[in-house]
Amino acid sequence: MADKSNTQEKIIESATVLFLEKGFHRTSVRDIASRAKINISLMNYYFRSKEILFETIIDLLIGGAVSSLKEILDSDLDLNEKIRQYINKYIDLLISNPLLVSFVLAILNHSPDKISKLKVTDSLYNTEKFANQLDEENSKGNIRKVDPEQFYLNMLSLIAFPFAVKHVINEKNNFSNEAFNDFIIKRKDIIYNTLISSIKP
Amino acid sequence: MADKSNTQEKIIESATVLFLEKGFHRTSVRDIASRAKINISLMNYYFRSKEILFETIIDLLIGGAVSSLKEILDSDLDLNEKIRQYINKYIDLLISNPLLVSFVLAILNHSPDKISKLKVTDSLYNTEKFANQLDEENSKGNIRKVDPEQFYLNMLSLIAFPFAVKHVINEKNNFSNEAFNDFIIKRKDIIYNTLISSIKP
DNA sequence: GTCTATACGGCGATAGAC
DNA sequence: GTCTATCGCCGTATAGAC
Fold this sequence. Notes:
mainly alpha; about 0% strand; DNA-binding; Tetracycline Repressor, domain 2; about 200 residues; elongated; 11 helices; homodimer
């Protein structure tokens, strides 16, 4: 049994640093092994493949954040307040993990069959309660009629896409990482106002 | 000399099919060579690398579409009409090349240093005239004050992001490719209305 | 110029000895 | 649990035939 989970931890620690630094494709299992000072094949012993190791790390990184996003969506909050909180929490999550969007998109692109297995994409499903709430608010005359699926996609697009093109934004505007974060934080209000004004009766 | 450009064309034809079918990472140069019935090293002879071949194909696929997008943005059209045309043309382009967004994001993620060399990303730069137009319309009192950079990013996000998560959307809603296209075409109006209502005074 | 054959170093993964 | 050895791929480079 020896060090039990110590080796596993070393792999995760090293892999996390490298994945965050260079992304999935540019990090090799040999890189990970040499940084963790372990034998290459131990990576395959503890995790069955590089991809599973990667997904494990993603899930660890974002922790309960994704499920708390789902909680907001499923809560009984007032519609406006729900949208506000959802945007804020999502953007905070992505600011803490700026490569998350690219990672998830890379996986979706690389192995589309694994979509439903990814915990990260959980938040994209089960938007039923939110959809019902939009329908109800409309029938009360509080908001315009909207396709909930389209509205939710609008919200997601406005929140997530900028992180997918972070490099382009930074290069175009000569942004540092800090300047990018400032730019993104300003988006909290912008996205909220954009979404709300689009459903105002 | 033989068939002159015939070999080159065969490579491009085969590679296009495979890239569109399986994406960049899952297509090997050996796949391409065997499908084109040519020697592996000819790929390196005509194109210097797999990546350059890929970029060449992307540029061929989207042809003048990207530059015509830039033309719209730089035109003297009325703001509303400009936004409308830009959305419509962009979405038509992406419907014709549904993998384009994923491809570009994959390249951005894989080799961020090549951003400015990609012709496809040209459309993301030089939005100066559009920015000025937004400022002018605001000073005339026709629209609310907006950060042009944020507004343009909103537009781009709403247009492009859905294509990056096409697989998820299709799986969630049990969409066929046709149903996805219908869903996207409906977005032309939705995106227009969302953007316009966000700047209405 | 065009093409073939072949080889190089690196990759992710695995079988099997200890 | 750990390590060595090795497998079958990959993208790329090059020597040399036509």
